[in-house]
């Protein structure tokens, strides 16, 4: 077995254990979010979108129909099933320009729930910079990088939410 295969197997094992643990831990939040969305809006609580997986194999990605960070929770199901990774390139449509030609190398790894594009301090990266971050990840990823990205994801999401939050009115004395 080559070092690259061991690395892929270790990453998959990490995804399986981490994804399963997160699913179990967050299952009450998943259930409550699904219930609240079903009651609050007409139509299904889940949004379906076809994306390109590893080696370009398409799959239907599920997310909650909300603009909050909770939308990504169903992605943990795809991590456990082996369609996604906890950390990887941004999921793209199979017809996206980065899924063909030279940029197709991004499909050599599973798309991620989070990745370098998610933790960038710049909240609205131009697409070209996201593309470069994804390709750098594909070419240089290792478990230590994944752990660093995971450790920085929640603080990055919080910072982004705080920047978008409307200013509170001043309190009257």
Structure characterization notes:
The protein has 173 residues and is mainly alpha-helical. Strand 1 (46-52) and strand 2 form a beta hairpin. The strands form 2 sheets. Strands 1-2 form a two-stranded antiparallel ribbon. Strands 3-4 form a two-stranded parallel ribbon. It contains 5 helices and 4 strands. Residues 168-173 have low confidence and may be disordered. Helix content is 49%, strand content 12%.
Identify the notable features of this structure and list them briefly:
173 residues; mainly alpha; two-stranded antiparallel sheet; two-stranded parallel sheet; 4 strands; 49% helix
Quick rundown:
This protein is mostly helical. The chain has five helices and four strands; from the N terminus they run αββαββααα. 49% of the residues lie in helices and 12% in strands.
Radius of gyration: 17 Å
Point out poorly predicted stretches: 168-173
- CA-to-CA gap between the ends? 70 Å
The spatial strand order of the largest sheet comes to: 1-2
What is the topological layout?
Blueprint: H1 3-40, E1 46-52, E2 58-64, H2 75-81, E3 85-87, E4 112-114, H3 116-119, H4 127-140, H5 143-164
Parallel strand pairs: 3-4
Antiparallel strand pairs: 1-2
